[in-house]
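re: ur question from yesterday

yeah so i grabbed the chain u mentioned. its 239 aa long if i counted rite. heres the sequnce exactly as i have it in my notes:
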Amino acid sequence: MGLSASRASGVGNNLKHCTLWKADRSPACRAVMMALDALDLNINEVDVNMDKGEHRSPEMIVMNPLQTLPILKDRNLILNDSNAIATYMATRYWSPHASKLLPSDPGARAMIDQFMFFNSNVLYPRYKEAAHPILYKNCRYVPPNTMCDIQCAYADLEKMLQGRMFIGGSSPSMGDIMLIATVSTLNILVPIDQIEFPRVSSWVHRMSEEMFYTTANKKGLCEFARRLGELTGVQSTKD
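ran it thru and got these C-alpha coordinates back, copy pasting raw so excuse formatting
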Protein backbone atom coordinates (compact mmCIF):
# COMPACT_ATOMS: atom_id res chain seq x y z
CA MET A 1 0.00 0.00 0.00
CA GLY A 2 1.20 3.46 -0.78
CA LEU A 3 0.06 6.85 0.45
CA SER A 4 -1.08 9.07 -2.37
CA ALA A 5 -1.41 12.84 -2.41
CA SER A 6 -4.78 14.45 -2.82
CA ARG A 7 -5.78 15.30 -6.38
CA ALA A 8 -7.33 18.59 -5.34
CA SER A 9 -5.55 21.91 -5.53
CA GLY A 10 -4.97 22.15 -1.81
CA VAL A 11 -6.96 25.35 -1.38
CA GLY A 12 -9.94 23.45 0.04
CA ASN A 13 -10.62 22.08 3.49
CA ASN A 14 -7.70 19.88 4.61
CA LEU A 15 -8.90 17.08 6.90
CA LYS A 16 -5.73 15.43 8.15
CA HIS A 17 -7.69 13.23 10.56
CA CYS A 18 -9.58 11.54 7.70
CA THR A 19 -8.11 8.67 5.67
CA LEU A 20 -9.53 6.90 2.63
CA TRP A 21 -8.33 3.44 1.60
CA LYS A 22 -9.12 2.98 -2.07
CA ALA A 23 -8.30 1.37 -5.40
CA ASP A 24 -8.65 3.65 -8.43
CA ARG A 25 -9.94 0.77 -10.55
CA SER A 26 -13.05 0.47 -8.37
CA PRO A 27 -16.06 2.59 -9.39
CA ALA A 28 -17.18 2.78 -5.75
CA CYS A 29 -13.82 4.27 -4.80
CA ARG A 30 -13.88 6.67 -7.72
CA ALA A 31 -17.36 7.81 -6.69
CA VAL A 32 -16.01 8.84 -3.28
CA MET A 33 -12.93 10.44 -4.83
CA MET A 34 -15.11 12.51 -7.18
CA ALA A 35 -17.35 13.53 -4.31
CA LEU A 36 -14.37 14.71 -2.29
CA ASP A 37 -12.98 16.68 -5.21
CA ALA A 38 -16.40 18.21 -5.95
CA LEU A 39 -16.63 19.22 -2.28
CA ASP A 40 -13.02 20.48 -2.38
CA LEU A 41 -12.11 18.37 0.64
CA ASN A 42 -8.55 17.10 0.99
CA ILE A 43 -7.94 13.94 3.02
CA ASN A 44 -5.24 11.29 3.33
CA GLU A 45 -5.51 8.59 0.69
CA VAL A 46 -4.00 5.12 0.77
CA ASP A 47 -3.78 3.05 -2.41
CA VAL A 48 -4.64 -0.61 -1.89
CA ASN A 49 -3.45 -3.23 -4.40
CA MET A 50 -6.38 -5.62 -4.71
CA ASP A 51 -4.51 -7.87 -7.15
CA LYS A 52 -2.06 -8.60 -4.33
CA GLY A 53 -4.87 -9.14 -1.84
CA GLU A 54 -3.99 -6.13 0.30
CA HIS A 55 -7.69 -5.54 0.98
CA ARG A 56 -7.71 -8.87 2.82
CA SER A 57 -4.90 -7.96 5.20
CA PRO A 58 -5.60 -8.13 8.96
CA GLU A 59 -5.53 -4.32 9.10
CA MET A 60 -8.24 -4.07 6.44
CA ILE A 61 -10.40 -6.84 7.91
CA VAL A 62 -10.46 -5.10 11.28
CA MET A 63 -11.84 -1.99 9.60
CA ASN A 64 -14.12 -3.83 7.17
CA PRO A 65 -14.89 -7.54 7.64
CA LEU A 66 -16.51 -7.52 4.18
CA GLN A 67 -13.04 -6.96 2.68
CA THR A 68 -14.28 -4.36 0.21
CA LEU A 69 -13.19 -0.84 -0.70
CA PRO A 70 -13.51 2.07 -0.14
CA ILE A 71 -12.94 2.48 3.60
CA LEU A 72 -13.09 5.86 5.29
CA LYS A 73 -11.79 6.48 8.80
CA ASP A 74 -12.60 9.78 10.48
CA ARG A 75 -11.06 9.60 13.93
CA ASN A 76 -13.02 6.71 15.54
CA LEU A 77 -15.69 6.47 12.83
CA ILE A 78 -15.23 3.88 10.08
CA LEU A 79 -17.47 3.73 7.01
CA ASN A 80 -17.19 1.32 4.08
CA ASP A 81 -20.08 2.18 1.73
CA SER A 82 -19.47 4.74 -0.98
CA ASN A 83 -22.91 6.36 -0.66
CA ALA A 84 -22.60 6.61 3.11
CA ILE A 85 -19.08 8.05 2.85
CA ALA A 86 -20.02 10.67 0.24
CA THR A 87 -23.16 11.86 2.02
CA TYR A 88 -21.40 11.86 5.40
CA MET A 89 -18.58 14.04 4.13
CA ALA A 90 -21.03 16.42 2.44
CA THR A 91 -23.05 16.87 5.64
CA ARG A 92 -20.27 16.62 8.24
CA TYR A 93 -17.80 19.12 6.76
CA TRP A 94 -18.62 22.55 5.44
CA SER A 95 -18.11 23.19 1.75
CA PRO A 96 -19.44 25.99 -0.44
CA HIS A 97 -20.47 23.32 -2.95
CA ALA A 98 -22.31 21.00 -0.55
CA SER A 99 -25.78 22.56 -0.88
CA LYS A 100 -25.80 22.03 -4.66
CA LEU A 101 -24.45 18.51 -4.44
CA LEU A 102 -26.70 17.41 -1.58
CA PRO A 103 -29.60 19.83 -0.96
CA SER A 104 -31.18 20.14 2.48
CA ASP A 105 -34.71 20.51 1.12
CA PRO A 106 -36.45 17.15 1.82
CA GLY A 107 -37.98 16.83 -1.64
CA ALA A 108 -34.81 17.71 -3.52
CA ARG A 109 -32.78 15.42 -1.26
CA ALA A 110 -35.26 12.56 -1.80
CA MET A 111 -34.82 12.92 -5.56
CA ILE A 112 -31.04 12.62 -5.18
CA ASP A 113 -31.46 9.64 -2.85
CA GLN A 114 -33.77 7.98 -5.35
CA PHE A 115 -31.09 8.00 -8.04
CA MET A 116 -28.43 6.90 -5.57
CA PHE A 117 -30.60 3.93 -4.57
CA PHE A 118 -31.04 3.09 -8.26
CA ASN A 119 -27.27 3.05 -8.58
CA SER A 120 -26.65 0.87 -5.53
CA ASN A 121 -29.60 -1.48 -6.08
CA VAL A 122 -29.58 -1.83 -9.88
CA LEU A 123 -26.51 -0.49 -11.66
CA TYR A 124 -23.73 -1.50 -9.26
CA PRO A 125 -24.89 -5.13 -8.87
CA ARG A 126 -24.90 -5.42 -12.66
CA TYR A 127 -21.40 -4.00 -12.80
CA LYS A 128 -20.26 -6.66 -10.31
CA GLU A 129 -22.07 -9.38 -12.23
CA ALA A 130 -20.28 -8.38 -15.43
CA ALA A 131 -16.84 -7.40 -14.15
CA HIS A 132 -16.00 -9.67 -11.23
CA PRO A 133 -15.98 -12.96 -13.21
CA ILE A 134 -13.48 -11.34 -15.61
CA LEU A 135 -11.36 -9.72 -12.91
CA TYR A 136 -11.30 -12.61 -10.45
CA LYS A 137 -12.65 -15.84 -12.01
CA ASN A 138 -10.77 -16.26 -15.30
CA CYS A 139 -13.83 -15.40 -17.43
CA ARG A 140 -13.08 -13.73 -20.77
CA TYR A 141 -16.38 -12.08 -21.73
CA VAL A 142 -19.62 -10.59 -20.42
CA PRO A 143 -22.34 -13.27 -20.71
CA PRO A 144 -25.27 -12.41 -23.02
CA ASN A 145 -27.83 -12.44 -20.20
CA THR A 146 -25.70 -10.01 -18.18
CA MET A 147 -25.30 -7.77 -21.23
CA CYS A 148 -29.09 -7.77 -21.61
CA ASP A 149 -29.54 -6.81 -17.95
CA ILE A 150 -27.12 -3.90 -18.38
CA GLN A 151 -28.91 -2.72 -21.52
CA CYS A 152 -32.20 -2.82 -19.58
CA ALA A 153 -30.60 -0.68 -16.87
CA TYR A 154 -29.50 1.81 -19.55
CA ALA A 155 -33.11 1.88 -20.81
CA ASP A 156 -34.40 2.60 -17.30
CA LEU A 157 -31.87 5.39 -16.83
CA GLU A 158 -32.81 6.80 -20.24
CA LYS A 159 -36.41 7.18 -19.01
CA MET A 160 -35.32 8.61 -15.65
CA LEU A 161 -33.25 11.32 -17.37
CA GLN A 162 -36.14 12.61 -19.46
CA GLY A 163 -36.27 16.39 -19.21
CA ARG A 164 -33.12 16.54 -17.08
CA MET A 165 -29.68 17.95 -17.78
CA PHE A 166 -28.55 16.51 -14.44
CA ILE A 167 -30.43 14.65 -11.73
CA GLY A 168 -30.83 17.63 -9.44
CA GLY A 169 -31.35 20.32 -12.06
CA SER A 170 -28.88 22.51 -13.94
CA SER A 171 -25.72 21.30 -12.18
CA PRO A 172 -24.37 17.91 -11.05
CA SER A 173 -25.54 16.49 -7.74
CA MET A 174 -24.15 13.78 -5.48
CA GLY A 175 -26.50 11.40 -7.26
CA ASP A 176 -24.91 12.25 -10.61
CA ILE A 177 -21.48 11.56 -9.12
CA MET A 178 -22.46 8.16 -7.71
CA LEU A 179 -24.11 7.21 -11.00
CA ILE A 180 -21.34 8.34 -13.36
CA ALA A 181 -18.73 6.30 -11.51
CA THR A 182 -20.74 3.15 -12.23
CA VAL A 183 -22.13 4.06 -15.65
CA SER A 184 -18.74 5.13 -17.06
CA THR A 185 -17.37 1.74 -15.96
CA LEU A 186 -20.33 -0.18 -17.38
CA ASN A 187 -19.70 1.68 -20.63
CA ILE A 188 -16.35 -0.11 -20.86
CA LEU A 189 -18.02 -3.49 -20.38
CA VAL A 190 -21.14 -2.86 -22.49
CA PRO A 191 -20.83 0.30 -24.61
CA ILE A 192 -23.77 2.69 -24.51
CA ASP A 193 -25.52 2.96 -27.89
CA GLN A 194 -25.80 6.69 -28.62
CA ILE A 195 -28.77 6.15 -30.93
CA GLU A 196 -30.74 3.93 -28.55
CA PHE A 197 -29.85 5.89 -25.40
CA PRO A 198 -29.31 9.53 -26.45
CA ARG A 199 -30.12 11.02 -23.02
CA VAL A 200 -27.73 8.70 -21.22
CA SER A 201 -25.02 9.39 -23.80
CA SER A 202 -25.46 13.16 -23.52
CA TRP A 203 -25.47 13.00 -19.72
CA VAL A 204 -22.28 10.92 -19.69
CA HIS A 205 -20.64 13.48 -21.99
CA ARG A 206 -21.70 16.40 -19.77
CA MET A 207 -20.41 14.64 -16.67
CA SER A 208 -17.10 13.84 -18.40
CA GLU A 209 -16.50 17.57 -18.81
CA GLU A 210 -16.68 18.25 -15.07
CA MET A 211 -13.35 18.90 -13.34
CA PHE A 212 -13.93 16.26 -10.66
CA TYR A 213 -14.44 13.65 -13.39
CA THR A 214 -11.05 14.49 -14.86
CA THR A 215 -9.24 14.60 -11.53
CA ALA A 216 -10.84 11.61 -9.83
CA ASN A 217 -12.49 9.28 -12.36
CA LYS A 218 -10.58 9.32 -15.63
CA LYS A 219 -7.32 7.76 -14.44
CA GLY A 220 -8.98 4.85 -12.65
CA LEU A 221 -11.38 4.30 -15.55
CA CYS A 222 -8.44 3.99 -17.95
CA GLU A 223 -6.77 1.61 -15.50
CA PHE A 224 -9.92 -0.52 -15.42
CA ALA A 225 -10.11 -0.56 -19.23
CA ARG A 226 -6.45 -1.60 -19.52
CA ARG A 227 -6.87 -4.38 -16.98
CA LEU A 228 -9.99 -5.63 -18.74
CA GLY A 229 -8.12 -5.62 -22.03
CA GLU A 230 -5.25 -7.62 -20.52
CA LEU A 231 -7.66 -10.26 -19.23
CA THR A 232 -9.93 -10.52 -22.27
CA GLY A 233 -7.49 -9.74 -25.08
CA VAL A 234 -9.81 -6.96 -26.28
CA GLN A 235 -8.52 -3.41 -25.93
CA SER A 236 -11.18 -0.78 -25.24
CA THR A 237 -11.14 2.60 -27.00
CA LYS A 238 -12.99 4.25 -24.10
CA ASP A 239 -11.27 6.69 -21.75
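noticed a couple things. The radius of gyration is 17 Å. also Strands lie at 2-4, 13-22, 41-47, 71-74, 77-79.
anyway ttyl
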